[in-house]
Amino acid sequence: MRKGTRKLRKLRLSKIYTFACGKKSLLNEEHSRIGSPGFSRVVLLNEPSESSENASGNNNDNHHYADNVVRSTKYTVANFLPKSLFEQFRRVANFFFLVTGVLSFTKLAPYTAVSAILPLIVVITATMVKEGIEDMRRKKQDIEVNNRIVEVHKGDGVFECTEWKNLKVGDIVKVEKDEFFPADLLLLSSSYEDAVCYVETMNLDGETNLKLKQGLEVTCSLTEDNLSDFRASIKCEDPNANLYTFVGSIEFKEQVYALSPQQLLLRDSKLRNTDYIFGAVIFTGHDTKVIQNSVSPPSKRSKIERKMDRVIYFMFLILFLMAFVGSVFFGIETKQDLNNNVMKRWYLRPDDSTIFFDPKRAPAAAFFHCLTALMLYSFFIPISLYVSIEVVKVLQSIFINQDILMYHEETDKPAHAITSNLNEELGQVHTILSDKTGTLTCNSMEFIKCSIAGVAYGRGVTEVEKAMNRRNGLEFDDLRNSPDRKAPIKGFNFTDERIMDGNWVNEPHANVIQNFFRLLAICHTAIPEINEDTGNISYEAESPDEAAFVIAAKELGFEFYKRTQTSLSIFELDPVSQEKVKRQASLTYMLLHVLEFNSTRKRMSVIVKDEKGRILLLCKGADSVMFERLANNGRKFEEKILEHVHEYADAGLRTLILAFRELDEEEYKEFHDKFTEAKNSVSADRETMIEEVSDNIERNMILLGATAIEDKLQHGVPNCIDKLSQAGIKIWVLTGDKMETAINIGFACSLLREGMTQIIIHLDTPEIRSLEKVGDKREIFKASRKSIHRQLSQGAQQIAAASGTPEQAFALIIDGKSLTYALEDDMKDLLLDLATKCASVICCRSSPKQKALVTRLVKSRTGKTTLAIGDGANDVGMLQEADIGIGISGVEGMQAVMSSDVAIAQFCYLERLLLVHGHWCYRRISSMICYFFYKNITFGFTLFLFEVHASFSGEPAYNDWFLSLYNVFFSSLPVIALGVFDQDVSARFCLRFPMLYREGVENILFSWRRILSWMLNGFISSILIFFFCTKAMEIQAFDEGGRTAGRDILGATMYTCVVWVVNLQMALAVNYFTLIQHVLIWGSIVIWYIFLLAYGAMASSFSGNAYHVFVETLAPTPCYWLLIFFVVITTLVPYFTFSALQMRFFPMYHEIVQWLRHKGKTNDPEFCAMVRQSSLRPTTVGSTARRVAKTNSLRGSFTDHR
């Protein structure tokens, strides 16, 4: 530990090691593979570089190994240009414009080459700049990690600080408390005498509990004083991705010792509760196990973007069809131009024309005309669509990042949209797959209730109880916030005057209460830390549960303060004086054995001897294993305690049963001998022997009571789940926790409720257990598959039988062992079919791989948008597999965040991220794309109509630069503002009416029906503009001079109408006007007139037929202004009429809410309840659905009673 206010007592902790830690290192058959392929790594420790270079060539030259530099960038300086260009021209639209740009240098082009190439260059350059900026951010993150500082041994016991990137294989480093390991290290020694250290693996597996590591005995005495003489060589496995295995050996002083994972400290894990360690670098950089486990983030594209590609292909089909039809007619007309030397269109001189208009070579002319038409009609395809969408998404991401309501002040963490190209996907989520620990919960346990001697103690209120009381309008007293309450204590939320402040001595069963809290103070592996300045004691424990128990015992008068090699000491409240007194004899317990907790045993025990010489076995464990181990005379309070345990479980609390027994000397000696023999065994069934011996001693116990701790839900989780459920989003929980805990949390956050039928899929059946005892793996496999298939089929039949009962809701709960079989090819469809019909799905005891496989199954088979959310490295596969990965950044582990698409600090922020930003982004992007197609069809189809009017001459209706700048300046800026600022309803109404989100889930706003309707609107607008303009100018004089309108006047007039129409159409489509939108909409029209003036004032050789066309011809003519006014109004009438009729007779969700707001009915409870009620279904979960189900149940009971 660093110098400061704390002092950690050094201990030899051999008595509290886990069984795995205590196991001897053996050169067994596994280590015999060293030197074979896959096990060829040789590392020389503490060798000078000269020695390494001259070492014999058996792969032991340390400089051949990877350096410690980590790179996560997509590009390098050398490959940025070719690789990014390749990425851009993979898009079919960009490639098409590249081809037309090249063709524009030929005689086929209907416009100049510069006007065709320049927009493409602008678009491609903008996109490449964006890619470069994003890659630079990744480069900065790499630099930050690579430049972290570590102390490395330079010789003669001297350590110097250097950057991580400079480490080499074989270096000896010193890592101090709360620092990360810079590479995969071999633990040599530590600040503890027996070379143990505590490691937090949050970045690797998401767990906050500490792991115990221990160096070899032969190296445990290494210090700075004797490191200079240390020389050793290591032979081990080659780099691989397996986090939990390590095979190797170390040769030291001509002796060979086996290495195991117990000596391996992995990169990015953190040293905790240990002053320092000395470690040898084994794997560096990309050879480390954590980097080997990382995969390149999958390239994710939103469903809207993929559908947009299909719309682009459809537009190409229309484009090619127009070009083909026009070419056929052009060929026919050209062939008829010269018939028996009679010239039909004599003014074209068909008798003396080039191949492009030669009647004698009409098929060739038609082919060349087709190429010309493809270039001319290319304006159908919006060249600026992709870059505009990318700009909009970046700006949307900035708004997400700066949302103050998603900023977590406690951890100083704002929301962070890491990947901007999935913004609209946030508005289409159908299924959320969530981790539990650290995601739904804080992973911060609080002791809140207990049952002792059949009496329930504790007046604390759980999160689910608070949520239900608020929903029912009931008042409750939060004792934690009462003025008489002491300052909050982490891990302790217990209030009961009957046993606090020493009042337990007045209770009827004071002796049982005393034994209960003594057990909590003694039965653990926690380590006390004493603050030398204040004298306060804090605890480092292997799990938050254990820390909560020790803190509770301390707060209730049983303060654990010291641990030595063989004893535990506590301060205890004197029942007489009610003061803490130090009584060395009575309050020091000799620690004899620790029987560790694991998922199979489901319990933990310690065997201690008190000052009277009594040997006590103190045990705490799950009710499923504890009640069966009670003695006949130890069940006095069983019935009442069991009743309380069920009540606690219903309140979402995690329970443990506490019991003890007294051992006589002979019984203990027999156990000690057998346990020692089993522990020292080198056979394959060593662990089984240890568990059998432990199982025999942990029987005939006397029941003391039960604890209830709350794995405290993160703030706002129940309300968030309630809102997400009303929005039509399904929520699945994938957790590594045991089934009981997962079910408890399900109730706590209202994913489960009373009356919901639970379909539990598991393999804990008598048949499977009997086969496991026999050990026939083939029979176990067959029976397990058959059992899972039967249970899944029965679940489906159960749901089908209840289909006539609309009030019935189901929940599927399945464990990891069962998932192994259920995810097989012949059963996964059955699993998915059953799961999708259930209101809630909880997968417990799930491995990281199973989480990813379940996510893949839901994503691929349903075709709906999936969102995965987690906080640990064990969630990375799930996050990358889902359409959207959300990382929780409120804890220290950043592995999930680095692999996610969006990072938030708390689960509750998901409500605002999806229902507000997701809904807005989906709506904005959908409307934006539809409008892009509309404006390009409106513009592009006028070119085709002019071609028809001009006998497919290949001449454009507009000036070259009119064509090129349409998508860049005169119509694109307002649509970008639409994509950034538009709101159908405010954030407050998005949260108040979650059903608005269903527009995205059902993809209403980007369905083919809506896309085609916008396209149809574009065709209608184009036809109206062309028809009215041509007919108005066809015969009569255009101005006072009697001149008729030529192509220059007609083209400029039509273009002006198009600019007005598409921009005013935008104004009609906008729901929420801002100053920026006003400026851009009206500004685009003004810019057109300014450009027309400026461009027309240039030399005629450059401006062409636009020379002075506005000043001399259009502006002075009233006909021009009247025509524009008439055409614009007429063209917008169809859309306005359709919108009005839809709003009146077929309103969408957002239009209903808009109507409520317009009529001032948003505060009318009757109207709001009517609108909200449509979002509740039998399959909806959450506190609102829970309350409605309970009300319906009470009504049903009342009706039956009547």
Automatic annotation (TrEMBL):
The keyword Transmembrane applies. Mg(2+) binds at residues 435, 437, 871, 875. It catalyses: ATP + H2O + phospholipidSide 1 = ADP + phosphate + phospholipidSide 2. The lineage of its organism: Eukaryota, Viridiplantae, Streptophyta, Embryophyta, Tracheophyta. The active site is at 435 (4-aspartylphosphate intermediate). Involved in transport of phospholipids. It is found in: Membrane. SUPFAM superfamilies: Calcium ATPase, transduction domain A, Calcium ATPase, transmembrane domain M, HAD-like, Metal cation-transporting ATPase, ATP-binding domain N. Pfam families: Cation_ATPase (PF13246), PhoLip_ATPase_C (PF16212), PhoLip_ATPase_N (PF16209). Its main location: membrane. It is an enzyme of class 7 (translocase). Its EC number is 7.6.2.1. Belongs to the cation transport ATPase (P-type) (TC 3.A.3) family. Type IV subfamily. It is a multi-pass membrane protein. GO terms for biological process: phospholipid translocation; protein localization involved in auxin polar transport. Residues 897-1147 form the P-type ATPase C-terminal domain. The keyword Repeat does not apply. This is Phospholipid-transporting ATPase. ATP binds at residues 435-437, 546, 597, 620, 654, 735-737, 845, 851, 874-875. Keywords: ATP-binding, Magnesium, Membrane, Metal-binding, Nucleotide-binding, Translocase, Transmembrane, Transmembrane helix. One of its GO terms (cellular component) is plasma membrane. The chain crosses the membrane at residues 89-105, 111-129, 311-332, 366-387, 932-952, 964-981, 1014-1033, 1053-1073, 1080-1100, 1120-1141.
